[in-house]
Every structure is written in structure tokens, then in C-alpha cells.
């Protein structure tokens, strides 16, 4: 018996167009059918947790409660070693509440202006949570990590968020210079989603 009934609709607890696009591409052809929480008028949840896991659970529970469906949430961010892991869970609001991707990325570059090259290492983190219903006591939790370096100037136009300043050493370019399929095959989100898919379809 699979954890999710085949063909059952699942709400995706995100308002981030970049994430929605990537998750949609990753699940193309899968048994799982997802719809963004915007389709159900789900109000934005307050991300009050101190971990990616807590925030993903908060978002999934909120979307499940408002839609009456099982829910998947993605909480993700970028950690930089020169900043002892900041912005981390605060990546989306690094330059302040409601900040744009461009403002967040500019603040990160400016905070790293004096950082030694050796400390410009960092990584994207992604935690995905699947809740069967709002009170599900055993959420499925999957995680992915993608190691890289922080560039000094943005490069590339694909992706979203911090992609233009995230250098991918294995490919010699920024993640915004990777085509979407390649990014999905490497990324924190791709890793976590493939794990979740295996659990849901097993
Ligand atoms: O692959 C990525 N490429 C570039 N940047 C990324 C990526 N993955 C996460 N990020 C950044 C974007 C945002 O600054 C933060 C996520 O914050 P996070 O709260 O999880 O998402 P969000 O507020 O944008 O949308 P929502 O909560 O509705 O899913 O990390
Ligand atoms: Mg958020």
C-alpha cells in the first residue's frame, strides 16, 4: 500500500514561483498530482521555526488545514561559511520582510565584501515535508544539500533567488547558468524530492 493514494491530489505549500516551477518539472510524469496552495486561497503561514524542518512543517500543516488535502512544503535557504551559516533559514527575508531576490542577493554580496576567498564556501539546504493531514504525527521529512561557493558578481538568468551568485564547482558556472534539467539533477531540492517520491511511491 503506497503512503499516498495514487492520483490523490496534494497541495504544494509554497508561493514561490521558482520553487513551484522546479517541483512541477521534477514531478512531471510522476504518480503524484500537486497543486499550488494559491489555487485553494491558502493564506501565507508565519515561519516562526528555528529550523528548516520546523518551518516546513508549519507551512505544510497550514496548507493542509486550509485545503483539506495532504500537503508538501519546501523550506530552503543558503548558508555561507564566512557568515557562520547565515542567512540560513532567514534567506527569504535577509534584506528585510518582503525583500526581493535581488535585494537579498545584493545584501549577501555586500556582507561578504571583506570575506577571504577561502570562506566564500556555502551550500543550499532544502527540507521537504509531507503531511497526510494537519495532525499527522509522523510526517515524511526529506533533505538535500548542494555545496558551492559565493561569487563576487551575479552570473546567469535561469533559476531564482540566490542562483546568480551560487558557483557550482563541478560545472564551472553559476546555478543560474545551468539549464533547468541540470539544476534539478544536482540541486538540494532535486535530491530531497527524489527521496520523497521514493517514499510516496513505495
Ligand atoms: O534553488 C534555489 N536557488 C536559489 N535560491 C534558493 C533556492 N532554494 C532556496 N533559495 C532561497 C530563496 C529564498 O530566499 C529562500 C527560501 O525561503 P523559503 O521561506 O523556503 O521560501 P519562500 O519564502 O521564497 O517561499 P515559500 O515559503 O512560500 O515556499 O532560499
Ligand atoms: Mg517562506
From TrEMBL:
Substrate binds at residues 14-19, 76, 160-163, 183, 188-189. Its EC number is 3.6.1.66. SUPFAM superfamilies: ITPase-like (SSF52972). CDD domains: HAM1 (cd00515). It comes from the Bacteria. Its cofactor is Mg(2+). Binds 1 Mg(2+) ion per subunit. This is dITP/XTP pyrophosphatase. The lineage of its organism: Bacteria, Pseudomonadati, Pseudomonadota, Gammaproteobacteria, Chromatiales.
